Amino acid sequence: MAKAKVHQTCHISELDTLFPCPSPPPTVLSPPRYPGASPEAVAALRYVLTDNHTKYHIFHNDLRYHNHTTHHALALYAVGASGSLIEQFYKQESASQRPVVESPEAITKENFIEHLSHENFYGAYITFFIEAIEEKGVSATLEEYIFSEKYNFVEGRDASTQPVMLSRFLGALFHALIHVGHGTEFGMMGMVAEGLAMASVHEPILLPPSLFEHGSTTAVKEATTRLSSLCLNTKIPIAPPQLAQPQRNHAFSIIAKIMQDSEFAPKEMKRHVSDIDGLLSEHGANIWRHTEQWTVDVSQPGEIERKMEECFWTTTLLYAIGGWSKDVGFTADFFLMHLVTSSLFLPSLLSYLPQNSQVLLLRTYFASTVTWWILRGSPRLDIQGFLDATSSPPSSAGTVANPFLNLVQSAIMHPNDHMVKIQRAFAHFSSLYGARPKGYFKGTELEGAEALDGSLFLRAAGFTEEYMNQGAKLWSQKEFSVSD
Length: 484
Description:
The chain is mainly alpha-helical.
């Protein structure tokens, strides 16, 4: 008997459930909404989300470039853009999208692993995850299909056929994490289902099986709340205390050790630029040897918040200071930019996870960000040179009341959809950590880190604005020059 094909469409009432009015952020560490919300903006946003869901595939070409029209629409909404502007950008961007593809058959628990990586099953995976979320809730669905050992390493399977769903979730420049992160930030079950389906059709990258061994972290296993609800699960806000700063195994120290490791010298890494499979095949064990020293000890109060903050600083450091050199100045790198934009969703994602999975997400996310920095040639981090090049942040010049408002306003109108995403991230990081003083990172092993303060986020945003308003207004995908 012929297998029934699966259509990527929904009844209108189901679309209303998948893409409701945006909910407030799940924690105080998630980015807040800017003023400017209106019924028209909500209507435009929901139109974009539902229209995209029913009409377009997650990859907009055969090279597997991602369709992130919804990311742009949600970012615009978050910073107060008008409904007409949200619709205007969607009209431009949807013109280049691929139409939906009918899946050859339905995805079930029995054939779930069999069709991983197959992009023509994207629609079927969406249906599968919608049903899973309706039955179990978002938290339990994430826990089972992304963080459980069952859907990552199955005893008896060889390495090439392992499901490794966490790897797929983090792979392809974090796009599935970003997509699901939008769902958890805005309360959109449809975005969560789409993001999990996206992860399912991604190709995997290497992660060590030891991550999923019992007792591999010091975290105490928490039970996941399993709610059979169409709404996202209840969130517990994470308070943003003024954290003490123990420097033992700080993320900056791990970066410093990698920079000192001759195996990762820029000239050595040059041959692996844009070849993540080759890099991990040859150097993956050593990358993990370094990054597993970045421990997450949840017996320490505030540890999850502290390690999340380290991720914000590290992604900004690798993008902004890694993108600067005294010879060339600043280059806004396309790949390193995604480190920043993906880290913005850590608070919203972590708020839905039990403690063991919070630890697992943080550790694997950090390892993945380091891997992308190495893949880009381990660009050197001349902290003092970078700071000297921006010795007077715009806010200290006295000419602008709040420079971030101007930067975000400019990003809203920028033709490149990633601009509003990265400037929203820098603005949020600045709101959380802009008051960190010089000396905050004293004691890490990264040379020059003691000179950093909370102005890093404004400096990074300013450099990005300047670079992206030149010439073609495009992110750079060129190799960084190698000087050592």
